[in-house]
Amino acid sequence: MSTAAPTQWKTLPAPDSPAAWIERAAEVAAILATDAAARDKAGATPYTEVQLLKDSGLVTLLGPAEHGGGGQDWTTAYRVIREVAKADGSIGQLLGYHYLWNWAARLVGTREQWEHVEAEAVRHTWFFGGAVNPRDSDVVVTEDGDDLVFTGAKTFSTGSRVSDVTVLEGVLEGTDRHIFAIVPSDSPGLTFHDDWDNIGQRLTESGGVTLDGVRTPWASAAGYVDKEFRPRVYNTLNVPTIQLVFISFYLGIAAGALETAATYTRTRTRSWLHGGYDKAVDEPYVIDTYGDLTAKLWAVEALADAVAAEGQKLHDAPDEVTEQARGEFEVRVAAAKARATDAALEVTSRIFEVTGARATASAEGLDRFWRNVRTHTLHDPVAYKRREVGRHVLTGELPEPTWYS
């Protein structure tokens, strides 16, 4: 991977508008694209890729401007994730999860906590990982004086092996209260396992983690004051926010697949010998397929952008978020998630119809787009997202806030 561009960024001013940040993300994507297929095949831990995100400034996009961060909002963050994912779905996911876990302090914590976390995150260019797989309830948190001690394991811990800090989650012993805390990723007792070997999103470092007595002060327990949690509706926005992260890199992967396939079709695909056309780009079925897939992708992108803008209004006034507003937003996110899943799967599988048999060669790496989408869209069943929408339409029911809704 070239390092010339990151060196150049050090002499340039930071982007100062949403358009400029998206352009910076496109520059990052151009670097990632040069060897994306080879890196996917190698499956090496993406230390260099994460450093690229740091050098470009993308990791501090959501950070407060007064501390040197980008000062941008979620509508820009989603577009940046989409742009990076065009070149590399794994790195798009890592960046998106980083944004969510960075923002988690603001979602769950007290003002004093999130102001401290966000200032430190910008100052030290922290990259965030998370050991917060909600289906694993086997991390127990115990008290030891002024400390909390996390013990147990999580099956998935996306990004943690390449992170500076990790968000932990566990249940306080003898209660049903969940506790989130941010700890250094090199904390004693925190062991990340090199066991992520799935067909897609191979560079996300989503393997398991063991917590063997990981200690952190009680004061770091997000949202707790005097050992009591102070709930608010805004706390529950973690699910629709991260689902929009998912949508963003699904759409980015799909867009990258279309762009890569179109270049291949223009330059290498041969017309069918019995079709009567000299060039593949003149084949009616090829033209129709690209038109169909592009129209579907553009439609979902427009929906995703609209829903992101609706969500930003909630982020802008966190203390005013009502259960009704939160529920209606989740329904809209669920609809976008369902359509993004279908569109991304269709685009990434059908590109082979218009690139040809030679495009299936391993060296081309076109299969990585489908493998990446197929792997992550299994995160939670899309049928349950459609159910949220359908029940709301028929009965007015709003989704109950859970780890997945």
From TrEMBL:
Residue span(s) of domain Acyl-CoA dehydrogenase C-terminal: 245-379
UniProt KW keywords: Flavoprotein, Monooxygenase, Oxidoreductase
Coiled-coil regions listed: none
Highest taxon listed in the record's lineage: Bacteria
Pfam families associated with the record: Acyl-CoA_dh_2, Acyl-CoA_dh_N
Any GO BP: L-leucine catabolic process
Keyword Transmembrane helix: no
Record's protein name: Monooxygenase
Natural source organism: Streptomyces nanshensis
